[in-house]
Design a protein that fits this description.
Blueprint lengths: L6 H7 L2 H12 L8 H15 L5 E5 L5 E3 L5 E3 L5 E6 L5 E8 L14 E4 L2 E3 L3 H18 L8 E8 L10 H8 L4 E4 L10 E5 L2 E9 L15 H13 L6 E10 L9 E10 L2 H22 L2 E10 L6 H16 L6 E4 L4 H6 L5 E2 L6 E2 L7 E3 L1 H17 L6
Parallel strand pairs: 5-8, 5-9, 9-16, 10-15
Antiparallel strand pairs: 1-4, 2-3, 4-8, 6-7, 7-18, 11-13, 11-14, 12-13, 17-18
Helix pairs in contact: 1-10, 2-4, 4-10, 6-7, 8-10
Length: 402
């Protein structure tokens, strides 16, 4: 790095007031994952903001995504566009930085405004998760571009519109941009308000099982019916029995049925799994297939499986640990104490790690109570985390740290 960009100089160069204003403005735009108009507006705002960096900004159409309705029908779900910035694509060493513009708060949700809780804390939708993180990416890169090593490396920035619902419309794009990168940083908020990072993560999968039976009169000829609710209930017990130390199974909802005097001919079972390892993930899918075939045979129903693992488990290998160690070292140079702990949560970092690229995925702001109307962001962390990322990128641009 240039000598005038020592760690403290990086911290001093962060424009905290501009960052705060941008986060407040961005949080005021509702970007619930299903609010396509709000996401389109946000994508335009982000494209303008990131255009100050020396690269090409593109708004990428979402990949097609289908879901299963309560009536057992498959339908296409709309999603917003994703923002991609590519800087120096010809560079031999390149990074990828990712974040998401969507929140869990739909357009009709009452939580829509930003307010101050105290002199250092604001409460608002997406302030921590993750409009604050998006602003950290922007200002970290602006700082990084002033360092000597920046011109020798390149990077992609990907901000998707569907992380909160599993990144199904952006997973292929994430994996495409991640492959071959030297390192990745993702800007979820810190795991704890003190700045602790999420380390290893488990995986997750969401399934919808449609069971088609045969209706009949519950009094006159019930034996001629094939009860889809009974088959779904049997399925719940069988998949729940697959739980082990390395995987949990959460049957979440059964939809279907009609009047009490009708044998129900349709049920939709929705459930989530949380495998802690790739072996557990693969084992479950194999056992599920056998169970579904037994349900079909024993209950004489039709069974259709939709969904699967959306985020594989994220172990921390030697290269990833070296990246964590570098972040900790850079934090210490900035007077920040950085630690980490495993997390049961998942994010796009899971999908990046699956491509073999080392990733730290909680480089965003400090805050808490995410996914609730109590969500808050610790304002000084905007400056802290922007300087931290700029220093990490500057270090990664020189030498072999990983």
């Amino acid at each position: 790095m240039k000598p005038d960009f020592a760690p403290q100089a990086l911290l001093d160069a962060v424009d905290r007031d501009t960052m705060l204003r941008e986060v407040q403005d961005w949080a005021a735009i509702n970007t619930g994952t299903a609010n396509i108009a709000g996401l389109d507006r946000m994508a335009g705002v982000l494209a303008d903001a990131f255009s100050v960096l020396p690269g090409d900004v593109e708004l990428v159409d979402p990949a097609p995504v289908t879901a299963i309705s309560a009536e057992g029908r498959e339908f296409e779900k709309p999603h917003g566009r994703h923002m991609v910035l590519r800087v120096r694509p010809e560079a031999e060493r390149r990074f990828v930085l990712t974040g998401h513009m969507d929140t869990v708060f739909p357009a009709e949700h009452p939580f829509q405004e930003v307010r101050w809780l105290d002199d250092d804390t604001i409460n608002g939708p997406g302030t921590a998760d993750m409009k604050g993180g998006l602003d950290v990416i922007l200002h970290a890169l602006k700082l990084f571009e002033t360092t000597e090593g920046a011109a020798r490396v390149g990077y992609d920035v990907m901000i998707n519109s569907d992380e909160e619902t599993g990144s199904l419309a952006s997973r292929g794009l994430i994996e495409e941009l991640a492959r071959g990168k030297y390192a990745a940083l993702t800007y979820e908020p810190s795991a704890l308000p003190d700045g602790t990072l999420a380390h290893a993560r488990g995986g997750t999968g969401n399934y919808s099982i449609t069971i088609t039976g045969r209706s009949a009169h519950a009094g006159r000829n019930p034996h001629e019916g094939r009860n889809a609710i009974v088959a779904a209930s049997d399925l719940v017990l069988r998949i729940k029995a697959l739980e082990a130390r390395d995987i949990t199974v959460n049957p979440a909802k059964i939809e279907g049925g009609s009047a009490n005097n009708v044998v129900p001919d349709l049920a939709v079972l929705r459930f989530n799994i949380r495998p802690k390892s790739t072996d557990a993930m693969n084992r479950f899918d194999g056992e599920l297939g056998a169970i579904l075939r037994m349900i079909e045979a024993e209950h004489e129903v039709g069974v259709h499986c939709h969904g699967g693992v959306t985020r594989p488990p994220k172990p921390v290998d030697a290269k990833a640990q070296a990246l964590f160690d570098l972040v900790k070292e850079c934090g210490a140079q900035l007077g920040q104490q950085i630690g980490w702990q495993p997390s049961g949560g998942v994010c796009d970092g899971n999908n990046i790690a699956a491509t073999g690229v080392p990733v730290v995925d909680t480089m965003g702001v400090r805050g808490g109570a995410i996914h609730s109307p109590d969500e808050y962001m610790i304002v000084p962390s905007l400056r802290e985390r922007a300087a931290l990322s700029a220093l990490v990128l500057a270090k990664l641009s020189t030498g072999d740290h990983l």
